[in-house]
Amino acid sequence: MKQFVLLFLLVFSTSYGFSQSSINVACNYDAVGDAHILATNYLPFPAYVSVDLSFIENAAFNESLPFIKRLEPGETELFVVRRELNMPSPRLGLDFKWYPANPKPEIDSKFPYLIPAGKGSTVKVFYPSEKEGQVFGLRPEDAIAFWLPLNDTVYASRLGVVAGGVNEFINTVSQKEKGKRGQNVVRVMFKDGLVGEYRNLSLNKIFVGNGETVIPGQPLGIAEKGADGESFVVFSVFYSSFSSDRMEYVRPMFYTGEKEPKVVTPPLEYKVSVPDELIGAEMSKKEKKQFLGSKK
Questions:
Q1: For the segment 258-285, what is each residue's pLDDT rounded down to a tens digit?
Q2: Can you say how many angstroms the Cα of residue 208 is from the centroid of all Cα atoms in its chain?
């Protein structure tokens, strides 16, 4: 089988802690002349790629375009372009773009996220923009923050795979200490391709690594303390804009012990509840057996 490298995607957004990508796209021609479009993700966590055709000759192709695919680490076949009968091998013009989150997600606006604090604890809600002396670059409608109880631990709100940000030092700093401190983040990609971001974790006090599956209620790390000595975490959920490099934010709804999830509102306090049915809600049978010991 002949292989032709069609394109290397070389630029990661520096805001996500990378200077270049490790995603390679290639075309393999098989013995009958069909073109197999392959992508190799050398990252230790998933990413998304979109593919479009600027032109196509000598081929039959019935996929909807743009073709969007989640790439797990390793090699993934994206699609096959079939050679037309009695014609040479296909000639293609391929356009690719990668995304750190799903650019076309199907969003469940009523999905019940867990409050990212310890079970049984009580947390107080505030908007990140209200944190005196600290700039997070997030609008009130983009994120929500929680004052944490004494153990300072941040917990996973939803099942997913750690997808960047681990021990990444972001220069989002206190105005009084400009250039002296920042905030660490953990990003978790969920099964629908949305990404949850947990900000203000302590550098080198993170319990998970890139590519690791985390389950709801699992400890992620220790939160930093603010100038007043209280610990807090800033939580947001986003997806990639298909047409730009921006992130589009989703306001998550949280499980608060009531029948329906709700948008939590400052300055109210909420008691953290972690019901078993929510821990396993998005798990496959294999995952339930692996993480919960369930045979169902």
A1: 999 999 999 999 999 999 999 999 999 9
A2: 14
Nearby residues of 189 by Cβ (< 8 Å), 6 or more positions away: 45, 46, 101, 160, 161, 163, 195
Q: pTM (2 decimals)?
A: 0.86
Cα(266)–Cα(234) distance, integer angstroms: 13
With cut-offs at 50, 70 and 90, classify the pLDDT of residue 249.
Answer: very high
Can you name the CATH fold of 112-279? Glucose Permease (Domain IIA) (2.70.70)
CA dihedral 99, 247, 278, 123 (to 10 degrees): 140
Measure Cα distances from 14 to 120, 138, 281 in Å: 38, 17, 34
Of the candidates 193, 186, 47, 190, the one whose C-alpha atom is nearest the C-alpha of residue 112 is: 190
Residues near 64 by beta carbon (within 8 Å), at least 6 away in sequence: none
Please give the Cα distance from 42 to 25 (Å, whole number).
11
Domain ranges of the chain: 2-99, 112-279
Q: How confident is the model at residue 199 (pLDDT cuts 50, 70, 90)?
A: very high
CATH class of 2-99: mainly beta
